[in-house]
Write the structure tokens for this entry.
Amino acid sequence: MKVIITTYDGHRNILEANKYMMDKMGGENLDVTILGFKKPDFDLGSWKFVSMGEYKGAGNFSNDILEFFNNFEDEYFIMGNDDVVLTEEINFNFLDEIIETIKTIPNFGRIWLTPTSNNSLTVYGGCSKHVDFGDYYIGELNQGANYRLSLQYSLWKTSYFKKHIRKNLSPWDWELRNDAKYDGAKILIPINNYVFNFGHIMRKGTIIPNWYKSLFNDKNLTDEDKKNVTEILTKHKII
């Protein structure tokens, strides 16, 4: 499964911390492509890098990604985030269950791959049970839910993603618009299980004090990983 991570020049070297933890948590089994502008200043290893040209600002986000996705033919892909560090191993067993499930859904659009909090369910407007696995299940958001096009770690059907590419959208405009409401697509969310768990490094250009702590639960970086990631971020003058 291909993982596509978009970034920009200000975040391009945060990706070394991201890669360090992703490789440690099993991400070496994933096919990762970075969509950016200037190439990062570290060894990308097996990760691929595609330059989208010159960075013209966040408001050009949808224009920047258009050429890449016009030529992208995989049926599904995972959209990842650049400024995160994984806090526990990737749950490939659940990812496999998700992939087998969505193959049976003709109008599948997207599924979150991160833990679901009660607060987020409130923001999204709740969900109905779609596929039951016993101790956990996959829920379906209602057609009028907010954030149906969220760019948080998710698995997308490529044709659905392409359908919603509009010109001159920033990432925030992309997520907050209403044109995906009542479009008939199934937007899914995992309940009591997840594939990716992470801490968030930056917000509005500023380091987040608890970046090494999961955004979702108590699965945080070990002291050793926190030290190693701190050294990476310090090397790039991020902290």
